[in-house]
Design brief:
eleven-stranded antiparallel β-sheet; Secreted protein; signal; alpha+beta
């Protein structure tokens, strides 16, 4: 009897600690961001360039498709007209930090020479904002991008993808998507594999 009396408080303590850890995990801003983004899985949305931008290379319909979601990875193809080469790949690690990579493909599905560049959050950010400074692999691959900073803003009504090249005089890039109006699901991006 005495032995079980000692075990019971220990077991209760472990269960309570597990509940607190679960509650704390749900309160982590990067997890809240992740969960909100996952609510859009399977949906596609129309986009537009941010105000005042002159980007002739981004003509045609701009579409994002939150194509696949898991606990650790979200893939979002980003189409520019008939150019189906781009996919944003977000991964979340065991420390609840999020990484953004850019997967670029040729029409035949092969990787472009410059591929899988991006960055990783340095902290858990905010539930509506995640920030990705260029990582060492990106700096080695594209030296001019070593001071790049990407970020994603997410609200109930809008998703925006942003890029600022801090060591350049080029204007920041921003594309905004209206999350209140899903559109027809587009075709697969180039080189897509489930």
């Amino acid at each position: 009897m005495r032995k079980s009396a000692f075990l019971l408080p220990g077991m209760l303590g472990a269960l309570m600690a597990g509940s607190v850890a679960m509650a704390d995990n749900a309160a982590i801003p990067s997890n809240q961001f992740w969960e909100q983004l996952q609510t859009h899985c399977g949906n596609a949305y129309a986009g537009k360039l941010g105000e005042g931008q002159d980007r002739p290379e981004f003509t045609g319909d701009l579409v994002m498709h939150v194509k696949t979601c898991s606990d650790t990875e979200i893939k979002i193809p980003f189409f520019v007209g008939e150019d189906l080469s781009r996919t944003w790949v977000l991964t979340k690690d065991e420390n609840n930090l999020i990484q953004l990579k850019h997967d670029h493909r040729h029409e035949d599905g092969s990787e472009e020479d410059i591929n899988l560049y991006g960055g990783k959050s340095t902290n858990v950010g905010h539930s509506n904002f995640q920030f990705f400074p260029a990582d060492p692999a990106t700096a080695a691959m594209i030296p001019d991008a070593s001071s790049n900073v990407w970020w994603i803003e997410l609200s109930n009504s809008e998703y925006s993808y942003n890029l600022n090249r801090l060591a350049s005089d080029r204007a920041p890039f921003r594309v905004e998507f209206d999350l209140t109006k899903p559109i027809d699901t587009p075709k697969d991006p180039w080189g897509w594999k489930e």
